[in-house]
Amino acid sequence: MSSKPPSSPQAKTTANTHCVVAELLRGLRDCRRVLDIPCGEGAFVERIAGWGLEVHAADCEDVIQAPHAIFKRADMNERLPYADDQFDAVVSIDGIEHLEHPFGFVRECARILRAGGSAILSTPNISSLRSRWRWFITGFHNKCKGPLNERRPSPAHHVNMISFPELRYMLHSSGFQITAVRANRVKAVSWLYAPWAPLAYGMTAWEFAREERDPGQRRRNREILRQMFSLPILLGETMIVMSRTER
User: Fold this and answer.
1) Residue 227: its pLDDT value, please?
2) How far apart (Å, rounded) are the C-alpha atoms in residues 128 and 236?
3) Which of 163, 189, 183 shows the shortest CA–CA distance to 96?
4) Residue 61: how many CA atoms within 13 Å on its side-chain side?
5) Sequence spans of domains, the chain
6) What is d(CA 10, CA 28) in angstroms, rounded to the nearest whole number?
7) Helix or strand or coil: residue 137?
8) Are 180 and 241 within 8 A, CB to CB?
9) Which three-class secondary structure state does DSSP give residue 197?
10) Mean pLDDT over residues 233-239, rounded?
11) What are the tens digits of pLDDT across the range 115-158?
12) Of 95, 166, 172, 198, which one has the greatest count of Cβ atoms within 10 A?
């Protein structure tokens, strides 16, 4: 009787996310050692397996099916089991929204990255007009459309949905500087919300100008405004943010 061939690792994320993350990773210079966390079954590891990289993978459960990875169990809410300055890049695809301590994870990414290393993070885009509209009507964002089961807490729960300004604050206050903002795709239905963009832009710009008096933060707010109203954030399904350590 023939044995059943092993199944391919499943990419449990939104369409095209792995493709965009891989494109950003491939564009990095002097990138030799990469960590994929949470790696799941290892679909992203398999995607980049032929690139000649030293690929490490980590997750809270050992379900990886990718033979090309150096795997460790790791709790993303705790100190990661890696040395300071160990990696050139950290990839975290749809992981940070599951964490009780996302700030701690971002700081751990900064610790284990070398100076000038890059972190690529993806997470559901709750700053999109479509998700904002869902929040206005129901009190719940897209990709987290109802209450979580509090009787059965799970690592799969989206316990920390993060807006773009919040993610930028986590990164910039932890020693990173954002270098790219992308989206996996813009779904056709998202264009239905585009007519609201001028009103949203005007109200947001007015609030930014009215609330902030510090000249330096006013300049930063103008950059944040541009990023918030870029196509990937305004209409994208999943936001993909690349940042570089500044130490």
Assistant:
1) 98
2) 6
3) 163
4) 7
5) 17-127+141-187+236-245
6) 25
7) helix
8) yes
9) helix
10) 98
11) 999 999 999 999 999 999 999 999 999 889 999 999 999 988 99
12) 95
Count of other CB atoms within 10 angstroms of residue 91: 27
Name the CA radius of gyration of the chain, rounded.
19
Per residue in 83-113, pLDDT tens?
999 999 999 999 999 999 999 999 999 999 9
- Strand 176-183's sheet: what is its strand order? 70-73, 54-59, 33-36, 87-93, 113-124, 238-245, 176-183
**69: which 2 tokens?**
């990875």
Interval 240-246 mean pLDDT:
97
- What are the residues whose beta carbons fall under 8 Å from the beta carbon of 5, sequence distance 6 or more? none
Q: What is the pLDDT of residue 68?
A: 80
CB 44 within 8 A of CB 11: yes
Rounded distance between C-alpha atoms, residue 53 and residue 50, angstroms: 8
As a CATH number, domain 17-127+141-187+236-245 is 3.40.50.150
Q: What is the dihedral of CA 74, 125, 185, 230, to 10 degrees?
A: -120
Residue 75: pLDDT above 60? yes
